[in-house]
Automatic annotation (TrEMBL):
Keywords: ATP-binding, Kinase, Membrane, Nucleotide-binding, Transferase, Transmembrane, Transmembrane helix. One of its GO terms (biological process) is UMP salvage. Residues 41-50 have a biased composition (Basic and acidic residues). PANTHER family: URIDINE KINASE. This is Uridine-cytidine kinase. The lineage of its organism: Eukaryota, Amoebozoa, Evosea, Eumycetozoa, Dictyostelia.
Amino acid sequence: MSRDHRDDEQNNDDNNTTTAETTIVFSEQNNSLLDEDDYDDGKQQVDLEKNGGGGGGKGKKKDGNKEYERLENGCDDKTNKFITKSDEWPPWKRNLAAGIWIVIFVSLNLSLSFANKYLFTIGFMNPVFVILTGTFVTFVGSCICVFGFKMSTFPKAALKRRWKMILLCSTFQALTYVLENISIISIPISLNQIIKATAPAFIIFFQILIEGVRFDATSIVCTVIIIIGAALSVVKNPSFDKWGFFYSLASTIFAVLQSILISSLQKDKDLTTLSIVLCTSLPSVFVIIPIWAYKELPSLIHDPYPDPLKPWLIVGALAFAAFFYNLSHFYIIKYTSALYYAIVGNAKIILLIVISSVIFHTSYVAINYVGMGLTLAGFFAYNIIKYRQKVFDSNSTIDHTEASDCESNNNNNNNNNGICLDILNRLGNNNNNNNYNNNKSPKRKNATPKSQNQSPLLHSSPLPNQSSINNNDKFTYFKLIIIIIIINQPTNQIISNPSNIQFQRLDNRIYSNLLLYSSSYYYSKMLMICIAGGTASGKTTVCEEIIKRLENKRISVICLDSFYRPLTHDELTTVASYNFDHPSAFDWDYATRAIKELKSGNHFNIPTYCFKTHNRLEETTPIADIDVIIFEGILSLYTQEIRDQMDIKIFVDTDSDTRLSRRVLRDIAERGRNLEGVLYQYEKFVKPSFDEYILPTKKYADVIIPRGADNVVAIDLIVRHIRSKLQDKDNNMKPNSVGNH
Ligand SMILES: Nc1ncnc2c1ncn2[C@@H]1O[C@H](COP(=O)(O)OP(=O)(O)O)[C@@H](O)[C@H]1O
Ligand SMILES: O=c1ccn([C@@H]2O[C@H](COP(=O)(O)O)[C@@H](O)[C@H]2O)c(=O)[nH]1
């Protein structure tokens, strides 16, 4: 141990109280493990909080800085959610608001269905037009909410990033509603809802088709029950109509596809439910217009209605109701969670089946009642299973964090996306699980050479598969297009048969109900390790050594460096006076989200930072489906939120002279610097920041490794510990452990 480190630890000993954890220092001199006293928790991190979760300092003040704009607009730094007054409401007020919106949601849905039915009975046979006006008013209304009332941000960046997915989603959305409305003309609402209840079967089908996912027996049994039930519901049903049935089925399939896309879109930090409605409604209008022009325009012009004003008033009212119905989705999710919303949506389907059967005196034969009972039972069971799995999933994730206060953060972050561990994210996965997400330059030994501006993947593993989000997107779209081709075949036939068009109801936002189904059986079995330490202390080298020894495991290394804030124009002009070693140089919000998402078993695209341009590059590196994540960086132990996610916390403790000499060589060779620049930066920023911010985080480490990668004993012991932790997790994954939660 170097002298100054000893001094530092001594100081800490003097000053601090003990915590429950024990820090282990690996000393190779005597090959023994030395127990160290622990230190006071949470003291250093105050600095970050003072700076607004790391968002403070320089980054916030500069013009043109996106983060600054975001914060100025009222976006919370930690959760990345838009802050409104209601976020500060007491729980009772939020619950009351949620309750009111749930009532609005259910009653609007029922009213839309029944008013639509009434429209058709008075001879207004333009279901596509009803959807068109509803979608258009939804677009105008969401514009007013976003631009006028600033209820959500306009997701410009997300729109640019995800425009293809948004367009596809809009198309599915339009087809879902149009086909559904057309279908209900020839079959009763209750039958239509029964058909919609078969959605889990399609979810499972698509997951098997697209991903090759294997499902647990209970999900399969529920799905089989649903299908048998749905079949029995239609057999000999006096109200059955084959085209109505096919339209409804096609609508359900599109809704499933739409739900898959929506759940993926909801993972985007910039997309709220409201902004998704805004972005998808306009393209939907453009998809619906040609269908409407082809199907209904001639009859709309030529067929006079007995009472011309009445239907138009109803259509107008329905369009506004459709908008508020959409708005209610946003508010229910806002005040509760997406999971809650999905449950409400499922309950609504059942309510609709029962009420519509009673109101419209739908006639059934005995076998249909058996079928409906079976469908509902399967549907209930499926949802209960998914709900339990989800709850188990979040419990197991929280357990690993060993922190109670991260629970609320987890819940917050998962509100929009926690329940929809979406197919698409895993659709996009490739097999480069053992990837090295590192924005640094090529390393010695096995590192793959790359230029500074290349994609940041540095493969220390035998899997040389580089990838970027673009490639993933292509792959994903390719798969979706295949699905569309398969699905479009029967759909085209149906649409081309005008004689079957009768109309019953307006809007039924099925996608949100389906979010629950798209949640697959998932366990958080990943191990998260944090490696902190001063610059050039050997963090990366230690990672490489660990990876080498864990050859058969899927490991990803994420560098805190990837989350450097891109420098603004002003900052670039005075880059020599920019402190890259200060906590405010990092985008903590982004880094925290990445760690939490990955820890929850979700996919995340890691950004790429370029040390030469001090900017973020276009490429991102998708990370998912791995056994071990190593989060490495000078300040990786700095924030409590990130520390709370870690299973093992390591500090690489290398003496400062060694670090300086390594840094000089590295920065000149790999980061395009000169000697004067490196020394100036080291003296002015690197060393003071190390003393002030980095070294104090050593107290949070479970393991301290003196001399970095040279300390073979330490690395061997860590690897052994990782193996045993992974084994523990594997054991806990066994099916019979589910019941314990
Ligand atoms: N044990 C070691 N012996 C010799 N050189 C080392 C050792 N560990 C790291 N280095 C060199 O020091 C530099 C910085 O190491 P690195 O692992 O990248 O540190 P960090 O990730 O902490 O910045 C690299 O050029 C690396 O080759
Ligand atoms: O644009 C940048 C960003 C960072 N730095 C320096 O990099 C190190 C962190 O990387 P390590 O690999 O952990 O050393 C940090 O000390 C910054 O000073 C930079 O020079 N330019």
